């Protein structure tokens, strides 16, 4: 059972901010910054590519809700971060989003430092363009 599944099953204690039947929001115990939350489905789903549409849609609604909650409680912005797969830096193989509640001039730079492109925009476009309509998309679940 993964770490997040153990937290969801109350086998590991956490600081629960909010939960419903399908979603849990906790404080990140890494304490790398103030107000760092993790939002996850209670169902074990490895990443966004493996997530069913209903679960993902609900997660996005919860992310919007907690973001508005932060603004209503004096924060002035949020960062929403997510990694999918080991190559992207996903350390726990359970879908989750990091929500960082922010205040003006808090001194935090949450953006990654990127090395710069090594290929042209045309080459990127050629490899990434999507040619089939969205309604024909079948997620891997």
Architecture overview:
The protein is of the alpha+beta class. It has one domain (3-108): HIT family, subunit A, CATH 3.30.428. It has helices at 3-8, 53-72, 121-128, and strands at residues 16-19, 23-27, 36-41, 77-81, 97-102. Strands 1-2-3-5-4 form a five-stranded antiparallel beta sheet, covered by helices on one side. The model has no long low-confidence stretch (mean pLDDT 94).
Question: Which properties best describe this structure?
Answer:
HIT family, subunit A; 24% helix; 141 residues; alpha+beta; globular; five-stranded antiparallel sheet
What form results from the Cα inertia axes? globular
Tell me the series of helices and strands, N- to C-terminal: HEEEHEEH
> What separation lies between the terminal Cα atoms?
19 Å
Strand percentage: 15-25%
Q: Return the structural class.
A: alpha+beta
Low-confidence stretches: none
**Strands of the biggest beta sheet: in what spatial order?**
1-2-3-5-4
Summarize the entry for a quick read.
This protein is 24% helix and 18% strand. By secondary structure, it is of the alpha+beta class.
Topology, element by element:
Layout lengths: L2 H6 L7 E4 L3 E5 L8 E6 L11 H20 L4 E5 L15 E6 L18 H8 L13
Antiparallel strand pairs: 1-2, 2-3, 3-5, 4-5
